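User: My instructor asked us to take a sequence, write out its structure as tokens, and then describe one feature of it. I'm not sure where to start. Here is the sequence I was given:
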Amino acid sequence: MGRNSGKGGTSRRDPVEPSSLLPLPTSAFHILLALGDEEKHGYAIMRDVEALSGGAVRIGPGTMYGSIKRMLKEGLIEESDERPDPEMDDERRRYYRCSALGERVCQAEVHRLTQLLRNAFPGRAVPGFGSA
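Assistant: Let's start with the prediction itself. The structure tokens for your sequence are:
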């Protein structure tokens, strides 16, 4: 992948097979889900992870920023150069977005987990996933 539109992201020239990055660590998967709809700063990512999981998952700052560092290196997310209005934002905040590779890897992880559930409950309907 040759896209690198933000600071800190890695440019990938060779296509990366999403399955080569699976299974995703739980924190990375939740971060990708939280970044699915828009760019966010770290604290907003932590809040969205908790909200998306119905409060079941909470990512602390150490886990989140360690995950972000690894995800930037792997090219799953990118740091944004764009900033909100300085009067409405703290200039120390860094904003992140899901990369094209990150989107493909997240979709592959959703597929992997869906197959896992279908295999775990063969012939039975899995709530929210239908039958095998």
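For the description part of your assignment, you could build on this observation: The longest strand covers residues 95-98. Try explaining in your own words what that tells you about the chain.
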